């Protein structure tokens, strides 16, 4: 097998099932149909998988185009081991509710942390007020 540098090495992964972790934290699972020199991806029969604790739910997304700069991780899924998971699949409605509760809990914990620091005379600048350059 010849070594191909960069994204050219992914050509042999076309038409295989892949998991893609995005910069915003979302997880996509689908069949890799196309890739270019910028690592832009086209996924087919894509689902967005949401994990909360030991449960997960899949939201059908169809054909999905992902800009290469948003890809954190790309990995092939072993179809023989795919069903060997300790996670429990639940309905879309249930996983979205679990996700909402988890996010609300994190937000409340963050507010308590900020208040505790404020009570001690410390403050953390909010991320949306920081310059991005």
Pick out its properties.
single chain; 133 residues; alpha+beta; SH3 type barrels; 1 helix; 6 strands; 35% strand; extended
Shape: extended
Q: What is the CATH class?
A: Mainly Beta
Radius of gyration: 19 Å
Number of strands: 6
Summarize the structure.
The protein is α+β, with helices and mostly antiparallel strands.
Question: What this model shows, in words?
Answer:
The chain is α+β, with helices and mostly antiparallel strands and 133 residues long. It has a single domain (6-120), classed as SH3 type barrels (Roll). Helices cover 21% and strands 35% of the residues. The protein has one helix and six strands. The chain has one helix at 92-119, and strands spanning 17-22, 27-35, 41-52, 55-66, 71-76, 88-89. The chain has a six-stranded mixed sheet. A hairpin with a 4-residue loop joins strand 1 and strand 2. The radius of gyration is 19 Å and the shape is extended. The chain starts with 16 loop residues before the first strand and ends in a 14-residue tail after the last helix.
Write the layout of secondary structure elements.
Layout: E1 17-22, E2 27-35, E3 41-52, E4 55-66, E5 71-76, E6 88-89, H1 92-119
Parallel strand pairs: 4-6
Antiparallel strand pairs: 1-2, 1-5, 2-3, 3-4
């Amino acid at each position: 097998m010849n070594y191909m540098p960069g994204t050219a090495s992914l050509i042999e992964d076309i038409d295989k099932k892949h998991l893609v972790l995005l910069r915003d934290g979302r997880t996509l699972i689908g069949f890799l149909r196309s890739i270019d020199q910028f690592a832009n991806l086209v996924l087919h029969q894509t689902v967005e998988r949401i994990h909360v604790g030991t449960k997960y739910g899949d939201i059908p997304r169809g054909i999905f185009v992902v800009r290469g700069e948003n890809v954190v991780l790309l990995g092939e899924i072993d179809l023989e081991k795919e069903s060997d998971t300790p996670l429990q699949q639940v309905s879309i409605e249930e996983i979205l509710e679990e996700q909402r509760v988890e996010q609300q809990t994190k937000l409340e914990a963050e507010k308590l942390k900020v208040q505790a620091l404020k009570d001690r005379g410390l403050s953390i600048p909010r991320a949306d007020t920081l310059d991005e350059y």
